[in-house]
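Lab notebook, bench 4. Still working through the backlog of constructs that have no structural model yet. Next entry is a single chain of 77 residues. Request: give me the structure tokens for it.
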Amino acid sequence: MNALAVLAELSGNVNAMGYGLAAIGPGVGIGIVVGKAIEGISRQPEAAGIIRTNMFLGIAFTEALALIGLVAGFLFV
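Model written out:
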């Protein structure tokens, strides 16, 4: 096999591994956001609507970071 082809194949695998590792951060972030929202709702059930809305906003912003990381991986290859 050509050395350049081997290097290109390795580069693709390293990029996929890098994004896989980078996806751990948003996953942990979403877990924290949802956990704290459940904790807040259990402490003040009357504020469940506001807490749930803020939880979904937090999830959306955290997930946006993962999507930006995915797009950046494709742009900088």
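Notes after review: The chain has a mean pLDDT of 83. The longest helix spans residues 48-75. Flag for follow-up if needed.
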